Amino acid sequence: MKFRKFLPVLFVSAAALIMASCDSKGFPKMSDKKEDFHVYLFVGGDNMSGRGIIAPDDKEPEDAHIVMLDKNGQWVPAVEPVQYDSPEAAKGPALEFCRNAVYDFPTCKIGIIPAACSGSLISEWSKGATCKKSGTKPFDNAIELAKKAQAEGTLKCIVWAQGENETSGSGYGEKLQRLMESFRKELNAPNLPFVVSEILVDPMKKVQEDINKGIRDVANSDEKAEYSSCREMLVGPDKIHFDAMGASMMGGRLYGAYYSIIENDPFSNMPAMEEK
Q: How far is CA 161 from CA 140, 166, 205, 276, in A?
C-alpha cells in the first residue's frame, strides 16, 4: 500500500524530467558539443539556389534546431530564401533536407552552409575558377564557408544539385568525380558523404540524360556517394526549375540519399535502432 502513495510523485517527477529535457516544441534540448552541431554544405546551380515561390510562413523561423550562415558569416535562424547568391534565389531544397535531419538527430543543432551559384557550369566549380554569370569563385567560396563551419561544428555531408545550364553532358561524370574529390581534399575529409540530385529531363534533349547518367555513375562507384531521383517531381512553368513543392520533394529525396549512406555507418552518430 505504501508503494501506491509514491506513484503520483514518481509520475510527476518523470513528466517534469521529460518536460525539462525538451524545448517549447517538444524536441529534446540541443547539445552544445561541437560534434553535435551537424553542418551541411549545399552547393550547385539554380535549383540549389531555389526558384520555388516563397510562402509567408517560409520567412518565419520554425525550429530553433536549424540555423544557417547569413551574408555576414553569422549563424541565424534558418528561413527562406536560404541561399543569397542571386536576386532570383527563392525556395530551395536545403530546409526540407534539414527538417528530416532534425527528426533523426533530435538533440543536435543542424546548420546550413548556403553556397549555391546560380547559372554556374560544373567546369566553373574548381579551385580558382570564376563563374562567368556571377563573377564569383563558387568553389573557393564554398570551401571558405565550409572551413568556417568546420571550426564550430561537424561537417556531415556535401549536397550538390546542378546541371540545368550545361550545354553538353559529355564528360559530366568525370567532372563531377573530380569535384567530389576536390571538396574532400580541400576539407581534409576523405570519407565525407556526397549526395547529388538528378536534373529534370526533356525527352528532346539528350544532354540531360547524359548528365544524369554521369551522376548515377559517380554515385554507384563511391560507397560514400549517392544520388536522388527527380522523377515525377513538380516543376515550374519553365520546365527547368522545381516549384516550391518540387523543391521540398527534392530536399526530402536528397536527405533519403544521405540517410542511405549513414544508416549502417557506426561513426555517423545515428541513433540506435530498436529491434522489433
A: 17, 12, 19, 37
How many Cα neighbours within 13 Å face the side chain of 130?
Answer: 5
How much is the pLDDT for 17? Answer: 38
Residue of 163, 70, 69, 85 lying closest to 117 (CA atoms)? 85
Query: Residue 70's domain is classified under what CATH number?
Result: 3.40.50.1110
- The string of DSSP letters for 104-150 reads HSTTSEEEEEEEE-TT--GGG-STT---TTT-S-HHHHHHHHHHHHH
Q: What are phi and psi of 256, to 5 degrees?
A: -60, -40
| Domain limits for position 224 | 39-262
- Is residue 270 in a domain? no
Tell me what the mean pLDDT of segment 168-194 comes to: 97
User: Under a CB-based contact definition with an 8 Å cutoff, are residues 50 and 93 in contact?
Assistant: yes
List pLDDT tens digits, range 224-240. 999 999 888 777 777 78
CA distances from 87 to 63, 131, 184, 216 (A): 25, 16, 30, 31
What one-character-per-residue DSSP string does 97-115 give?
HHHHHHHHSTTSEEEEEEE
The pTM assigned to this predicted structure is 0.87
Residue 16 pLDDT grade (very low, low, confident, very high; cuts 50, 70, 90): very low
The pLDDT, as a whole number, for residue 206 is 85
Q: What is the mean pLDDT of residues 103-114?
A: 96
Domain for residue 24, yes or no? no
Specify the higher pLDDT residue, 155 or 5. 155
